[in-house]
Amino acid sequence: MTARLELTIQSIEAARRQLSLPVCDVADLSFTRLALERLADALRRVPCVVVMGEVNSGKTSVANRLIASSVLPAAVIANTAIPVRLHYATSVSVAMLTADDRRVIDPLDPVLDLEDFNVEAIEVGLPEPRLKSFDLIDTPSKGDLTALADESDILIWCTNATRAWTETERRKVMEFPARFRRSSVLVATHADALSAEECDRVLERLNEATADLFSTVVLVSAAEDVLPPLQVAGHASPQIAALQARLDFLISRFSNRRARVGEQLLRRVARMSLKTLPEIDANSANQQANRECELAHALLSRLANYTALHRRVA
Ligand SMILES: Nc1nc2c(ncn2[C@@H]2O[C@H](COP(=O)(O)OP(=O)(O)OP(=O)(O)O)[C@@H](O)[C@H]2O)c(=O)[nH]1
Ligand SMILES: [Mg+2]
Prior knowledge:
binds guanosine-5'-triphosphate; TRAFAC_Dynamin-like_GTPase; binds magnesium ion; P-loop_NTPase; 9-stranded mixed β-sheet
């Protein structure tokens, strides 16, 4: 999360707390308190990165390289053809999602057959620091993935560099939401199967052929056993480091965009709320109600012009 987004969330939470204090307890502002709470919740959601591509294009390998370690509980997800969503958690957790249920399961259960339960997706929580800034979905190559694409913010499309980028791939990617064109990476895997000259040629061809669809093309060796030994100690190869850096850039651009939208919504909520505040009646016997209104008015007026770049509302 960028500093700008964090500051806006803190400011929203501070404003909501203040509007809930007895000194600011104006009944007409119950909508405002709820709106501020919802806005902070929405802004706190990390972006969702979805990894897609044709069969055996290296999706799972790339997903594992995007987080520092391959810690997927293979006993649970082996031989399945369903999306796996990774998210940050302080300890490993696994849940199965069916059409109408979410069931937490033991990640070490070796006998669980997911087909018995009509499982549609798996959610895995991992204590993996990189997952603090994004959720990651590894997808099967078959099935309708439009719903997953719709709920995702950043697309990683994998293609095998030895036969990269077919007409079928282009057609599939063109079906995805247009917003991906600024926040997607084409990852050509199996770079280790090509000579240095071939790598240059493939990169040049992919850059030319896909400039309208992806923000970047990256060539990588994604399989665990072709990584240099240092990777085991947690150091990414230069190719993987370049891919991670590109993803970090897209995530931070996403957060900045979300921060700007969040600031706009905050100003709008404050302006609408100002209109619902009761008039201050100087002759009223209820001076306490007047003071509450004045305080709420002052706070909402500051929020109505809020921008994280200039001020902190506390
Ligand atoms: N040599 C080499 N092998 C790779 C590379 N990336 C993936 N592989 C291998 O290719 C095979 C398929 O890789 P996966 O990561 O499972 O591919 P996938 O797209 O997830 O496959 P599906 O989910 O079955 O569609 C595995 O044996 C990987 O080890 C790579 O960059 N180089
Ligand atoms: Mg896979």
